[in-house]
Design goal:
Largest sheet: 6 strands, antiparallel
CATH architecture of the largest domain: Sandwich
CATH superfamily of the largest domain: Regulatory protein AraC
Shape: globular
Structural class: alpha+beta
Order of helices and strands: EEEEEEEHHEHHEHHHHHHH
Oligomer: single chain
Length: about 350
């Protein structure tokens, strides 16, 4: 049975900021990509609407053009680093990151670093996935309608690589059951991204680009939210002064460093409440809180409901009637999403 997790909105909202300048210059874009080349056809050997491929790129490889297509692209960088350009916005990707390319968005990549870059890409037509799945998970459908970077938590990265390996096997060595397996594995892949992925655009104000040092901070928090984290420690990790990082982080995200860490921890706690039978105290500790009482206070402050009530409410879910969203308003949250059809 599908279970539905309603994640908290980021405190302080994600409204567009005025006159937000970036300290670091943007890398040079590929020289020949002034105009998108147009619609890229779906591979001929993927009539069922799902295709997966693995390629190795040398660090000097640059895609010399932008392209777009009417199907979803899920890009997973297994090794190396690269820059992803989508609709005049750039994102830095390192090993273990995912990039979602929404249907119709023009994009290209530029690889960098000193080691070969291995990437696995899943191409999927939305109609290839069961309509019942989209009905049960409207939040996934909504997120996939917008291009953006996804940072995986450690457990999510392990699950992702295992899933992609299985999908490659079904794609490259097909038999009469491969179509059904690829469809099921694609739905599992999307659920894995939902459970273990943090969408960067959830946290960043509307802006033309994200500076690399802030991306490093977001990545570090995503990987280490369960540990005691301080502004000073994270600033040391990326060689910035704590006061400078504090100002810049608030300027880019709209919230303080501590508010953001609590947001990520509560987000993961929401998932744990719905997918495990762990006690609330254990979930609090696993998500980086050293006090269950403090965890409950922060949870209620962000979600307007206690952890116990949140878990109890999820049990009223009925597949026939669709997912039941928590019956509360998110206090202090100015940013909301509207459903977008794929």
């Amino acid at each position: 049975m599908y279970r539905y997790a309603e994640y908290p909105a980021l405190p302080g909202g994600c409204q567009a900021s005025e006159n937000l300048s970036m300290e670091e210059p943007l890398p040079a874009r590929p020289a020949q990509e002034t105009q998108p080349v147009g619609d890229v056809p779906f591979p001929d050997n993927a009539d069922h609407g799902i295709y997966i491929e693995k390629q190795v790129r040398v660090p000097t490889f640059t895609m010399s053009y932008e392209h777009f297509h009417p199907y979803l692209e899920i890009f997973y960088l297994q090794t190396g680093s690269c820059i992803y350009y989508v609709r005049n916005t750039l994102y830095h990707l390192t090993a273990g990151d995912i990039f979602i390319v929404a249907p119709g968005d023009s994009h290209c990549t530029q690889y960098e670093g000193l080691v070969a870059c291995e990437r696995i890409v899943v191409y999927c037509k939305p109609e290839a996935v069961s309509s019942h799945f989209w009905l049960a998970h409207p939040d996934i459908r909504e997120k996939l309608a917008r291009s953006g970077k996804v940072v995986l938590v450690k457990k999510g990265k392990l699950l992702m690589e295992g899933l992609l390996c299985r999908m490659l096997e079904e794609n490259n060595l097909p038999d009469e059951y491969s179509y059904e397996f690829l469809t099921l594995l694609t739905m599992e892949l999307l659920l894995c991204i939902k459970r273990g992925g943090i969408f960067v655009y959830e946290q960043i104000r509307n802006n033309s680009s994200i500076s690399m040092d802030i991306e490093e901070v977001l990545h570090y928090i995503a990987q280490n939210y369960a540990l005691p984290l301080t502004l000073e420690e994270v600033a040391c990790q990326i060689s910035l002064a704590p006061t400078y990082l504090s100002r810049k982080f608030k300027k880019v995200t709209g919230v303080t460093f501590k508010e953001y860490v609590n947001y990520i921890r509560i987000r993961q706690a929401c998932q744990a409440l719905l997918t495990t039978d762990d006690s609330i105290t254990k979930i609090a500790l696993n998500c980086g809180f050293n006090s269950s009482n403090y965890f409950k206070d922060i949870f209620r402050k962000i979600n307007g409901i206690s952890p116990r009530a949140y878990r109890k409410q999820s049990k009223s879910y009925s597949f026939a009637n669709g997912p039941v969203k928590p019956a509360f308003s998110l206090t202090g949250a100015e940013h909301t999403y509207s459903e977008v059809s794929l």
